[in-house]
Amino acid sequence: MSGEIAVSVWRGGKDGRYETYSVPRRESQTVLDVVTFVQRNIDPTLSYRFACRVGVCGSCAMTVNGKPRWTCRTHVSKVAGGGSLEIGPLENLPIIKDLATDMQPFFEKWQQAKGVFAPSKTRHDDIEQIPPSSPERRAVDAEIECINCGVCYAACDTVRWNKDYFGPAALTRAWTLANDTRDAGNAARLQAVSEDGGCHSCHSHQSCQELCPQTLNPTASIAGLKRRTLAAYLKGEIKG
Ligand code: SF4
Ligand code: SF4
Ligand code: FES
User: Fold this and answer.
1) N or C: at which end does the chain have fewer Cβ atoms within 10 angstroms?
2) In degrees rounded to 5, what are phi and psi of residue 203?
3) CA distances from 194 to 112, 139, 214 (A)
4) What is the pTM of this model?
5) What is the pLDDT of residues 62-101, one digit of tens each?
6) Ligand 3 pocket mutation pick from 59, 148, 214 by most atoms within 8 angstroms of CB
7) Could you read off the pLDDT of 23-71 as tens digits, one per residue?
8) Do residues 155 and 208 lie in contact, with contact meaning Cβ atoms separated by under 8 Å?
């Protein structure tokens, strides 16, 4: 493959602008390869974030031609069919500089959704095993593969309209823990996700599911939390 592609890249903070660079086309070139070429060969001050380059760490997500994507696993040939490529920072998060966003609000919402394991045992107890075939374990087979990339959070219109909404990733995390038989924090977790900003704010638009690079379905996890919180309320385990 030869030739060049014109790439518009966001530069600066929230009041920044797109600047266009010419980048050589390569076989099997990813969007992250393009960003890296600009930073290494054209402007070393370009800020962006990545680590693994193989779809594991979740740090490389950016807005590519208007949609949030993991850039290390997104081939230019798949997204730049019309010959143009526009790369910006993730939406719904503060821009630090260029393509780097501040992920703090994303992870603070994990805390608010009680997306943290609450142990029911001490270090002196035997290690508890979870049979892979148990219904609780099977219920979250897919969701435990979340790589925290923030693509769903950037894609979610409810996050855009409601700054208090925890968002699909935090609620997916809460759902995995709600099904973890070793966890002792479920009453507090179900209480947290039933309140303002929790699962009942989701409008089931499913853009999170359409764009999740791990093909997870946060909408289904959130629906699970809706059912679980209602059952807990009817049993008097959480307040309305
Ligand atoms: S289904 Fe819910 S979490 Fe997913 S994008 Fe829509 S509103 Fe957001
Ligand atoms: S649910 Fe999918 S899109 Fe959202 S953070 Fe996890 S891996 Fe990324
Ligand atoms: S660089 Fe790790 S997922 Fe893309």
Assistant:
1) C
2) -100, 10
3) 11, 20, 26
4) 0.95
5) 999 999 999 999 999 999 977 889 999 999 999 999 999 9
6) 59
7) 999 999 999 999 999 999 999 999 999 999 999 999 999 999 999 999 9
8) yes
